[in-house]
Amino acid sequence: MKEIIVVENLQKHFRIAKHHRGPGGTFRNLFSHEYRLIRAVDDVTFRVDKGELVGYLGPNGAGKSTTIKILAGLLVPTAGNLVVNGYIPWKDRKTYVARIGAVFGQRTTLWWDLPVIESLDLLRFIYQIPKDRFQENISEFRQLLDLDPFLDTPVRSLSLGQRMRADLCAALLHDPVMLFLDEPTIGLDVVAKEHIRQFIQHINHQRGTTVILTTHDMSDVERLCERVMIIDHGKLLFDGALEMLRRRFGGKRRLMVDFGEVYPEIHIEGAQVTECNGQRVVFEFERSTITASVLIGRLSEKYRIQDLEVREPDIEATIRRIYEEKLLDL
Fold first, then answer.
1. Half-sphere exposure of residue 330: CA atoms within 13 angstroms, side-chain side
2. Which of 22, 54, 84, 320 has the fewest CB atoms below 10 angstroms from its CB?
C-alpha cells in the first residue's frame, strides 16, 4: 500500500519567556531575557499508508495537536522532514490545503453569521468544486450527517453537535485524500458522537480517505481505529495495532461463566475467581500465561457450563494504566 504520510525526526520547539514572581518580579519581567525551551514534538518518526485510520493518543500537552497542526500546514517545524501526499505542507501550503480536510473540535471553518448552506456554497467557490460534484457530495452528506434540520440556520445558532456535523461536511466537500481530526467528539452527547463516528467510518471505508484522529474519548478509538500511536512529552512512545497495545499492557482478561448448577467451590488452574453470584462466576486470567480456549476446556471438563463470555480489558483503563505507571517511558 502506498505511503501517504512520511514523518522523519520531526521536531517543534517553543521558547517561553520565564515569568518572575514575588518582590521585584514585575520589574525583572520587564527586562528579563530568560527563556525555557518546550519540546512540544521531539524527534517523532512514523509513516501512514493511504486509506489508514490512525488514532493519535496522548494526555493534555503531549504534543498531539502540535503534530496535527504541522501536518495540516498550520505550523512550521523546528527540524525534521515531512511529506504528505507528495507535498511539504508549510512550503506548498496553497496547493496542499486544497487536497486535505481538517476539523478542530473547538474551532469552526464556517462563517459565523451565515446559514450553513451559504457557508457551504462559499466553500464550493473557494475550492473550485464542480457544481455536479458539489451537489453529489451535499446530497450524500445531508443524509449521512442528518443536516436538513439546520441547513438554513446561522452557524452561531447551532448546537455543538450540529456545528461539528456541519464542519465535517465542509471539510470533505472537495474530496480531500487526507482528513485530520482533532478532538471531533469533544463535548458531544452520545447521539451526536454516534453520528460523527458513523460518518468517519463511512468516508474511510467507502471513499478510502486517510484519517488521523486525536481524541481523549477511548470509545472513538475502539470503534474506529485498528492502529494507534501514543505520544507523551513530545516523544512517540508506541506505534502499532490496537490489539497489540491490549496484549502488551491490557492486564488481565475476564471470563464470565454461567454454570448449569450452583457449585459450592470452583477452582481452576490458571485463573482466579473474582466474583460469584449463584450460577454466574467471573474469572480473571493473564493472557501471557493461559489462553481463553485452554481455560474454557479445563472448566468444561470439570463443570457443566450453560453460557460464557470472554471480555477484553477496557481500552480506557489500559491507556490510563500506561500513563499512570509510565509503562512506555523511554
1. 11
2. 22
Q: Given strand 280-286, what is the order of strands in its sheet? A: 272-277, 280-286, 252-259, 305-311
Which residues, including other chains, have CB under 8 Å from residue 78's CB and lie 6 or more apart?
Answer: 11, 12, 13
| Sequence-ordered list of residues with C-beta below 8 angstroms from that of 196, at least 6 positions apart, any chain | 164, 165, 168, 184, 185, 188
Output DSSP code: residue 123. Answer: H
CB contact at 8 A, 159 and 153: no
Q: What is the pTM of this model?
A: 0.79
Read off the pLDDT of residues 248-278 as tens digits, 9 standing for 90 and up.
777 778 889 999 888 888 888 888 888 888 8
- Note the pLDDT tens digit of each residue in 66-104: 999 999 999 999 999 999 999 999 998 889 999 999 998
User: At 122, is the secondary structure helix, strand, or coil?
Assistant: helix
Question: How are beta strands 227-232 and 53-57 bridged, if at all?
Answer: parallel
Rounded Cα gap, residues 86 and 3, in angstroms: 10
The three cell numbers locating residue 45: 518518526
The three-state secondary structure class of 221 is helix
DSSP 138-199: HHHHHHHHT-GGGTTSBGGGS-HHHHHHHHHHHHHTT--SEEEEESTTTT--HHHHHHHHHH
- Which residues, in sequence order, are bridge partners of residue 14? 38
Question: Using one digit for the tens of pLDDT, what is the confidence trace for 273-305?
Answer: 888 888 899 998 887 788 888 999 999 998 999
From the list 223, 178, 218, the residue with the least C-alpha distance to 196 is 223
